Amino acid sequence: MPEYPTALGASSLDKITLLGQDLAADVMGEVGFGELAFWLAIQRRPTPGETRVFEAVLAALADHGFTPTAITTRLTYLSAPDSVQGALAAGLLGGGSRFLGVTEDCGRFLHDALSTARGGPPTDEAGWDELALASVRSARAEGRVIPGLGHHVHKEGDPRTPRLFHIAAEEELVGPHLSLFAAIGRIHPQVLGRTLPLNGAGVCGAALADLGLPLELLRAFALLARTAGLIGQLAEEIRTPVANDIFLSVDLNNRAVPPHPADGGEASASG
Amino acid sequence: MPEYPTALGASSLDKITLLGQDLAADVMGEVGFGELAFWLAIQRRPTPGETRVFEAVLAALADHGFTPTAITTRLTYLSAPDSVQGALAAGLLGGGSRFLGVTEDCGRFLHDALSTARGGPPTDEAGWDELALASVRSARAEGRVIPGLGHHVHKEGDPRTPRLFHIAAEEELVGPHLSLFAAIGRIHPQVLGRTLPLNGAGVCGAALADLGLPLELLRAFALLARTAGLIGQLAEEIRTPVANDIFLSVDLNNRAVPPHPADGGEASASG
Amino acid sequence: MPEYPTALGASSLDKITLLGQDLAADVMGEVGFGELAFWLAIQRRPTPGETRVFEAVLAALADHGFTPTAITTRLTYLSAPDSVQGALAAGLLGGGSRFLGVTEDCGRFLHDALSTARGGPPTDEAGWDELALASVRSARAEGRVIPGLGHHVHKEGDPRTPRLFHIAAEEELVGPHLSLFAAIGRIHPQVLGRTLPLNGAGVCGAALADLGLPLELLRAFALLARTAGLIGQLAEEIRTPVANDIFLSVDLNNRAVPPHPADGGEASASG
Amino acid sequence: MPEYPTALGASSLDKITLLGQDLAADVMGEVGFGELAFWLAIQRRPTPGETRVFEAVLAALADHGFTPTAITTRLTYLSAPDSVQGALAAGLLGGGSRFLGVTEDCGRFLHDALSTARGGPPTDEAGWDELALASVRSARAEGRVIPGLGHHVHKEGDPRTPRLFHIAAEEELVGPHLSLFAAIGRIHPQVLGRTLPLNGAGVCGAALADLGLPLELLRAFALLARTAGLIGQLAEEIRTPVANDIFLSVDLNNRAVPPHPADGGEASASG
């Protein structure tokens, strides 16, 4: 008979434990929600400084207005108002490579670059710049995108980026990922030939990686933040509905075209 | 051309606003994540006391060990490790009427009972008991379940319940829903003939309703809490995998039986 | 150690069975997909006539153009092109009470009405009209909607309805649910004071119920049909993308409004 | 104002078209469900032979017993029986890289190998063997897995594989992908040093690619097949429930362990 070990929630007749704590006495009323989410993910209680950086990241990622995920949650609620869980889940399913993935991609990019630094991470700005230059050049040589660079709206600078650097510095939590990300901000024009802003999604990935959160789950924290945002979208949709107007704006502007038989596409092109 | 009004996220070249605030300057590093989730839902910044009660509720609901939702998230990650968003969404989809629904059902039950109180809510314990008695009797007469009563493990009392009452009292946030729920705890043995504990999911619904959060979304806050819990489950699964053992424990104990043609079931029973 | 009985798929070293059949020899190449779906649901192989009615229903429900579910699948693919399963799942999540639910609601309504017929179902048109009249009157008296009546586009008649009646008649599969639905089409003007078309979603629910498919799963067959439709939407999106234009048409027409603090809404209205 | 072109569903007052056809007159009752799904995906009506191969693939992939996706659908229904769409969507979310991905991976692998064949695909068995040898060697040299080889149960041969080759041959639809896949079956022992069976998921991918279906959506057809299978699982769960036993078999065998603080894992390993 297999056993299933866990350090998460467990119950007995008169007690509930979570992460080895007495849930009622020592968690409820004592531990903030961001703090708890961090603790659940890493099984270590964060310091107040770590919590502040973590919650700043969650705030930065919670809601970006009428994104595809927000529209999806509203449309799904319109179709199936009986299932709030379905509307939230549908929105989260948009949290993939393109819209929420930059946070994870940036954390991974920085991590991989750091792992190439022989003799440990650099100790001065020149060292960081050198590592940044090598990693950006190498990515460019392989035709890879540098995640965290550029923003389609904030072309002259994403206001979240300096703010998060500032908060991390206040809490003495600027680690190697943020340091390398800052260096990429300094040196990338030498390689790319133009200056791009360090974007908010990227700096969030760097900050989460510096907090020691698992790289495989950086996207998950963006999704946690977004869950709060999507609840905000649902609440607003309930009070000021727009989903039906969105639906009609598409449906009324459909244009029937004849079927366009695939010429075999990718697949048969090889045949 | 339709317009889509929103008070949530909005961006311009050099600024991001959220709920009318400057996101970088005034939200990041200044607003906790629970506080922000409340603010997004109700478009009003909560007081510190409201935030504390709200986060206590989220802590109470975040993780209950190997629930069907937790198992689902782990199994989905096993099958599709490339899609963290899919694993979280799959888990949240279990947040329906049976497992996470008590919170919402209890909030609604209390709300409906309160709306029958002529002349406003009671002002003393006797008044609350009278209203509670009427609402429990009426529900029983209609064969309806009283949500928030009973627990399959904590048969002698759910430790979260007195704790949440205590926190709400400390913050002077015991409102009509919690008051009525307490009264149900006192009077239900007169109607049901036995004493059941007030459970944690129920008291959470009462507390959320007293915070003025929309009844349609009480389930959504349980889902927000659970998102943090499911991330904890995923993180633990990555470090100490059990999903494959769970899968095998089912698959290896399958027993082939002959098909059992439906005799038409519900539908044809009428035919 | 629990055992898990099943008549569905099972494997041994050299054989795979499904529903007690040899999958390779007797199902692959021998059983159509609609036929198999029916067989899986009811564990009895349908007759050719049953398969034809069933597949006609699936065709009727497969795709209705730019519905919220179709838009959702396209937007989710735009955000997360790495996860086709997420895009399909997100679209299906809109298959709830409002957009795909009529099929199920209509099947249930007819079933419930039939269960009130003392002495079994009627045997002539006058008997059906009487039962229809009683059920429509009773629903109206309780303020309930009659599912399957009315259509926002096909105001003078939904072309799917007479066609499905015709197919069912050809296959001698007009059972009590379709008979009662037809009677509702004849008598409802007497009760409602105006003539509404019997819609396609409703007649599909009646036909599925007459096939003996479980009422709890009528919605599931609409979702199966829709899965095929959503794959069509995805394929078209890949070849002729519109999701980004849909997203921009919303995002560019957003209008920032000040936060509108909930006055407590439903919940606090009682407080 | 953007317009949204589509060849899929469209409605007018008295007519519904789908793929340019009159839905009621020319699709309902005339087009099988597998045939329609193919047509929707590729906007060309398949021949009867193409339909037979396509439906054989769907049959092969519909249900494999108590897979993680089947367990997930049952557990989600247990938790949220009010939302059939949620239970199906949750199951489909497991249709990712590990469990349902082989079909897609195999189709892509074959396609990529074919695109390296200078002068078009081979014309005799020796030519196919040469191309297969080159592609398997190249994959091995890069440390890549050969998709479609091996099966954890059917170690001496997957019964679906010869059957699908046979059906495709009967319908004269053995194209370059199936030919190359067969050649891989012949030559891989030379490279791998042992003989593995060609598995059913792989041959399905090869057959779908030979049908000219888009490579990006091969996984989607596996999901369509699985939707029918999951409805079968739900129907069986409703009649013979096992989900609660599965849940309890995990929950009752949980073992509380102390939290195990991440030592920083991947991320901090670099710091």
UniProtKB/TrEMBL annotation, chains A, B, C, D:
Top enzyme class: transferase
Sequence intervals crossing the membrane: none
Pathway, per record: Carbohydrate metabolism; tricarboxylic acid cycle
GO cellular component, one term: cytosol
Sample GO molecular function, one term: lyase activity
Keyword set, alphabetical order: Lyase, Transferase
Pfam families cross-referenced by the UniProt entry: Citrate_synt
UniProt superkingdom: Bacteria
EC numbers: 2.3.3.16
GO terms under biological process: carbohydrate metabolic process; tricarboxylic acid cycle
Family per similarity comment: Belongs to the citrate synthase family.
Protein name: citrate synthase (unknown stereospecificity)
Protein source organism: Streptomyces aurantiogriseus
Gene: gltA
